[in-house]
Design a protein that fits this description.
6-stranded mixed β-sheet; 7-stranded mixed β-sheet; globular; 25% strand; 389 residues; alpha/beta
Length: 389
Amino acid sequence: MTLVRPVVRLASDLVLPGPWIFARQIADTGDAEDGALVEVLDAAGRFIGHALYNGSSDITLRLLTRGKKSELREPRDFLLRQLSAADRMRKKLLRLPEVTTAYRIAHAEGDDLPGLVVDRLGDALVCEYHALGFYRLREDVEWALGQLYPGFPVVHRVPNSAANAERFDPEPARDLGEVELVEHGVRYAVAPAYGHKTGFFCDQRDNRLRVASFARGQDVLDLCCNTGGFGLQAARAGARRVRSVDLDEVVLERARHAAQLNGLAVEHVHADAFHLLRDVRTERERPGVIVVDPHKLVANRNQLEEGLRKYGDLNTLAIDAVRPGGLVATFSCSGSLDLPNFLGMLFQAARRARRDLRLLEVLGAGPDHPQRPDFPRSRYLKGALLAVD
């Protein structure tokens, strides 16, 4: 028996690149319900592909396939194919299991699964949903992951921002307690699906090593440290002193526990980064390396001006506080802030601090966070290594 899916017709024969289709681009939604898997036709009635529909969201359609009706006869088969391909790249091409037990298995739009993120954290898997349609398919997602990672518990998480944008009330994520993972020889204890993002910042894996390569013999200040990744790698690389700072007492305790697990000497400071930097710049011996990695300060384009001001204030203080000849490694995970504006903000911050600045390197997320050429918005993490005189 042929399965009949709801049909959504577009207002034009021209389908823009990328997987997102907005309400203004749609002529008729038929009887599609929010969260449904639908067929998409252009204005002339030609089949475009399959998508997840949500008329309550700004992103009305998220395209999963293009061109073949047969590609999505069975959601479980489709999910297994897509997740298998994504997992194979991480294991066979990137060879990530050789250096870590924490990596991104599926990166939403970057792996043609728009609205679904899957992270491996040790011996657990965390699914993070940014689309109601994928959340409704969570049992099928878990089944597919069970074929790839048999025996691994799966936690389903929906960020508050996604629940609000998609307008639904998800079930609370189940609590697995703490699991241990290893990244480039450093052990971490994390709580899957709790805290920021999925519970661990897999995207900064390569950047933690890059910054640590400058740390030998240095006084390192790791701001907004979360579970302590930058500070731990810096201590392991031979830093003279490491201070890891966060305002969240829960994640700071996990950072402290990780330092103990690894036998590394790290000072943990419960403080606001803005306040601490004002004190640090008056110290007789200022730090030679400062890491600035705050949470997302720009949630959407409406907050861009305010968020840029916060980023500018924080980076001005950091640039002012680092010793002459030192390094500032600074990051933004705000997808609404593009790279040119991020770099422009940094050079303005240097002028405010009256310091000379040279851009050494532009950084981004690790390769397990791939981007599609037709969807540049997936480049959410931006970083810069700055030499400060």
